[in-house]
């Protein structure tokens, strides 16, 4: 944590948002960003860290949302249990989707996730006894005090903080580096003994869990869900947030989620352009800044405070090296 | 049952055409472009627009659709391929073609609308022809014609041989002085034009519909992967198998599970024969 | 601990081409073993077989009496076999330290869930690995670039980082694929120092190299390949004097 003060200020601002937000709509928007982020935080480990380009996570979001609506709404189960069930269901579906598809090369994997999203939509329409088909389902709220917009926001903030903490732990410890190694060089990953499929699958199942949780909370915000709530384009949107934010970062994709969710809501012309705008952004980032917008800030910082890269000759320290090798052999 | 077979064959022919579009772009660039299906979508939408809105005669509309498809192929190469191929990151082309596909789909949705619109008659024919209706046989003829045309092109023409040389070993091709950038651009224009033609021919079957592109990108890819990447015969067989299987399944189970079944087919083939029915094992996919 | 890493009468074919034919090689702990030969003689193929990227068509790869021929490449680090690459394969967006830490994956006992929860065990492992990696980096002479992003490294630094990454895996054997390529003579001297230290610590070092002066200077034993066959092995003096070796490789 490089900037504890900035972190504390941001946390305080987020926690007190319901008191200073201008109106209910802004609070709704913040809750929506939070629900999206819960999914994107997990997806980030898949796309941004392990480099597997999943465009179909909207299918897992839909599964979480419908799971919650069916368990808590149709069957009247306690919403907290239903929330946990949605997460578990998302993780299970992530496992079932990831196990065969993560063995495939990049484009095949992307197509498998695209197909998965379309299949989920197809099944939601086909199993209308369960899902209400095209008519949809209404979604129950959480019990007091989480049934108000502010209460709902705090609930989402809590889940989002927890999920962010988990991904941050993964990223800063060995598995985060292992995933990046799988992304950048499978050959190196094999040489150092990283179980490649296992690592990819672990990240993918985790993303299924967060997609399930995010889906349940998203459904509560929407209060009524239909297949049209989960168009394939929404999956594209998640994906774009991460790529624009920058691969291998957590803050970048978070800012990407905030800005890309808020922009179209605040500016009508952008909303009209919709996916054209996201596609254009994605194209520009790929062509001009393949490392994400975050790289822009880095470049700007380096301009302001140029860091001299001094070149020093390599000179081994025999004694230190001997000690270090011997320490490992004990 | 027979009608399900015929309709399946026609749809399958369109999938096969999309698979051929993939193959042509792949041969020179080793890129599987997400825009493959969108070329055919443009052919359908612009065909309908030329005839219905502008009132152009059929041959002109046909040429127009092919030109639009080719222009889109050119755009794909310039915007999404050329700059990206120079970089080492092998996944960037997936992102750039996905971005371009998203943009063109949304642009068509904004301009043309999100409802499917009917596609006019191409050849004068009575609507009571039933299973002999042109909407069934036009796509089949075009798909087979494209496959045969490609084989002739690869074997008999200089440019075709350059395509083959590039697909076998791009470094050797460059070393021998083949202008690889220009050949690749040509292949993208050609692929786009083929897609435009196929979309035009299948217009009466699919209607002029903005969202067709993504479906075709997926199903064309399934046909390609089933048939074997790089094989034109495989593309035809894969497309036909996919189209017929999903329409038979629709006949027995109901249309709600169409996509589920076609992906099921892909999974079974990839598990049993990862290189596809007509693919060669040493072609490393992607 | 005196088990050797051995290639036993290995034959490897690619399609119709026989890359290696009945080649044997024995790498002992605490020796530097040179592997030389003209381009296309099968040196890197043999290294890839020893490190598990290829499987032999005939013959066996042995570690002591254990047959590794069919064991997947990912298991080599746990068995104590590390390697470097001819073209350095570093992770460009990570720091030098993080790149070195990747090499210590075999000591990661914590699963994904334990990492996500940052359980005490996972954090302890991470700290231990970090300390060990810093020590090794300083030892090989990269102490001054520990926090630098790997894509900003100079060529020699990349080569030494590859070795440091191999060492964080606590190997018994390390296979170096042309480590002196592109280095200046001073840097080759430092490379020699590092290799000798590894040997003196009991590590078996396989050195695939074109730089024959360097090989003959530093190796205890040398094996020569030509066209996939072994033509001579022995001490540097014996190999250097062999007429066949002179004819196919060293020149008159």
What is the strand and helix layout of this fold?
The complex is a heterotrimer of chains A (330), B (286) and C (252).
Chain A: H1 4-15, H2 17-20, H3 24-49, H4 57-74, H5 79-101, H6 106-126, H7 128-131, E1 137-138, H8 149-172, H9 174-184, H10 186-192, H11 196-222, E2 224-225, H12 232-245, H13 251-266, H14 268-273, H15 275-288, H16 294-304, H17 318-329
Antiparallel strand pairs in A: 1-2
Helix pairs in contact in A: 3-8, 3-9, 3-11, 3-12, 3-13, 4-5, 4-6, 4-11, 5-11, 8-9, 8-11, 9-10, 9-11, 12-13, 12-15
Chain B: H1 2-29, H2 36-53, H3 58-85, H4 92-112, H5 134-156, H6 158-168, H7 170-175, H8 180-201, H9 203-206, H10 212-227, H11 232-253, H12 258-272
Chain C: E1 5-14, E2 17-27, E3 32-36, H1 43-50, E4 58-63, E5 66-67, H2 76-79, E6 81-83, H3 96-102, H4 112-116, H5 120-140, H6 155-168, E7 173-177, H7 185-200, E8 204-208, H8 212-218, E9 221-226, E10 229-234, H9 236-241, H10 243-250
Parallel strand pairs in C: 3-8, 3-9, 6-7, 7-8
Antiparallel strand pairs in C: 1-2, 1-4, 4-5, 9-10
Kindly describe this structure.
The complex is a heterotrimer of chains A (about 325), B (about 290) and C (about 250). Chain A is an all-alpha fold. In chain A, about 75% of the residues lie in helices and about 0% in strands. Chain A has a domain at about 15-235. Chain A has a two-stranded antiparallel sheet. In chain A, helix 3 packs across helix 13. The longest helix of chain A has 27 residues, at about 195-220. Chain B is about 75% helix and about 0% strand. Chain B has helices at about 1-30, 35-55, 60-85, 90-110, 135-155, 160-170, 170-175, 180-200, 205, 210-225, 230-255, 260-270. In chain B, helix 1 (about 1-30) crosses helix 10 (about 210-225), helix 1 packs antiparallel against helix 11 (about 230-255) and helix 10 packs parallel to helix 12. Chain B is globular. Chain C is an alpha/beta fold and about 250 residues long. Chain C has 2 domains: about 1-80 and about 170-250, P-loop containing nucleotide triphosphate hydrolases (Rossmann fold, 3-Layer(aba) Sandwich), CATH 3.40.50; about 95-170, no CATH class. In chain C, about 40% of the residues lie in helices and about 25% in strands. Chain C is built from 10 helices and 10 strands. In chain C, the strands form 2 sheets. Chain C has a 6-stranded mixed β-sheet with strand order 6-7-8-3-9-10, sandwiched between helices. The interface between A and C is large, with 49 and 70 residues.
